[in-house]
Amino acid sequence: MKSTRQAAILNLIDKHDIKTQKELADMLKTQGFEVTQATVSRDIKEMRLLKVLTGLGEYKYATADQAEYSVSDRFVRMFVDSVISIEAAGNIIVIKTLAGSANVAGEAIDSMRWPEIVGTLSGDNTIFVIVHNEADAEEVVRKFNEILR
Prior knowledge:
Layout: H1 2-15, H2 21-30, H3 37-47, E1 50-53, E2 59-62, H4 64-67, H5 73-82, E3 83-89, E4 92-97, H6 102-112, E5 117-122, E6 126-131, H7 134-148
Antiparallel strand pairs: 1-2, 3-4, 4-6, 5-6
């Protein structure tokens, strides 16, 4: 039972941005697990789950392996401090930064690992973000603007 529940926890945190133990317990209950928050807390500790920063500046549960791919506070700050403008042109997003800051902001974008993003190309003060289509471009611009707020 415990191993099945912990496998379900891994599946849930892989597919959802779960921010609290209560949220995790509620999701487990919808899958038929009878859990208390104390049980979830013990599982989190035993599984060595961590809270990591998402691309939107919120924290969520993740495994240690996932944590190394999360966005660090430092990358988010560098992105926010260096971006001047963001504009979509078809499936390409053009981001203007302060002189010499595009590589750092581009690294922050790459570390976000958003599925809509195909790749980035950074110069001195400009970043091209290539996404799959125009709808993805609109969504990614919206996400970037959320980070900048």
